[in-house]
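Entry 12.
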Amino acid sequence: MVSATVAASNSPAGSGAGGGFAGLGASVVTTVPREAHQLVDLAVDGLVAAAQAQDANARFAAAQLAALRAAAAMVAVRASTSSVPNGLVRGRALNVWQLLSRIAPELSEWAALFHFSAEKRTAVAAGTAAVTTREADDSLRDSATFVASVAARLGIPNRKLDVTAQWLAIK
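Predicted 3D structure (tokens):
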């Protein structure tokens, strides 16, 4: 376990789907499991791979996967301290985006955005659908902003994320 500061807030910051970095709220000292660090590192590596991908479908799928990994990191950290009893609703399991909305309400706009694009991500990864270059680039920017937001909230610094964020002009 690695000690870090986890920021908690009850309201989304900024504008658009998820807001950005402003208004992270009050900080609570907790421990961030090594697995959460690893998931954020994998998410950042995925952003780098997405940014380098020439094919729009590959860029879209890699960016979406990076966001999914960051969401899993946040769920892993917050689930252990959340008042949400479990990941079930009327006997059916929730996906990571639904869990994220419940245990990190400040990220619910992001969760909604990625939840609604999950079906397209699955189809693109399977090769049964295609995205435009614009969709892939938008997904990459949104994913990079989301990954950076999760890393900041978890207090996980990452040099590659800083470089990727500057390259994508999301800061």
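Annotation: The chain has one domain: 2-168. The longest strand covers residues 2-8.
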